[in-house]
Design brief:
The chain has two domains: about 5-70, Translation initiation factor 3 (IF-3), N-terminal domain (Ubiquitin-like (UB roll)); about 75-170, Translation Initiation Factor IF3. About 40% of the residues lie in helices and about 30% in strands. It has helices spanning about 20-30, 55-75, 90-105, 125-135, 165-170; strands at about 5-10, 15-20, 35-40, 45-50, 75-80, 110-115, 140-150, 155-160.
Length: about 170
């Protein structure tokens, strides 16, 4: 219930009606079969709009759902290439298939290669494997962050490519 009078009113067709008494504005809204909704309560005089409040709330909920869905789509998924560099080629293929599913779904993927013990001496093997994974997924992704080191592991971040996943799904 709007308690302050007078108020600035915006009509159902988004035209400014002007500053009028609250009761007159309520009467106008009822004539149109709509509601009088306070849009900006902090302004002086408060700004109210004649609109269908149920439709307005429905549209707001749709926008919130869309925002939540887009936020969820940009989630970062991690895929580890085994516990060490000594991972079988078939196991790498399984990880690549899983990464492909994530990328097609719109998620970013971080591929991690760990080094145990004296394997750290052969950093080039791990970086080579990360590059191979990036090449295998190049049809549905692009490299967002090239291979970088963090302690005893190297990682690469792949982002979904906007144009190519649609073609990848048809194939």
């Amino acid at each position: 219930m709007i308690k302050i009078s007078p108020i600035r009113v915006i009509g159902a067709d988004n035209t400014q009606v002007g500053v009028i008494e609250t009761m007159d504005a309520l009467r106008m809204a009822q004539e149109h079969g709509l509601d009088l909704v306070e849009v900006s309560p902090d302004a002086r005089p408060p700004v109210c709009k004649i609109m269908d409040y149920g439709k307005y709330k429905y549209d707001q909920s749709k926008k919130q759902k869309k925002n939540r869905a887009s936020a969820k789509a940009s989630e970062l998924k991690q895929i580890r290439l085994g516990r060490s560099v000594k991972i079988d080629i078939h196991d790498v293929e399984i990880r690549v298939k899983q990464a492909r599913k994530f990328l097609v779904a719109g998620h970013k993927v971080q591929v991690i290669q760990r080094f145990r013990g004296r394997e750290i001496v052969h950093k080039d093997l791990g970086l080579k494997r990360l590059d191979e994974v990036a090449v295998k997924l190049s049809d549905v992704s692009k490299v967002e962050t090239p291979a970088r080191w963090s302690g005893r592991q190297a990682s690469i971040i792949l982002a979904p490519d906007k144009v190519k996943p649609a073609a990848g799904e048809q194939a």
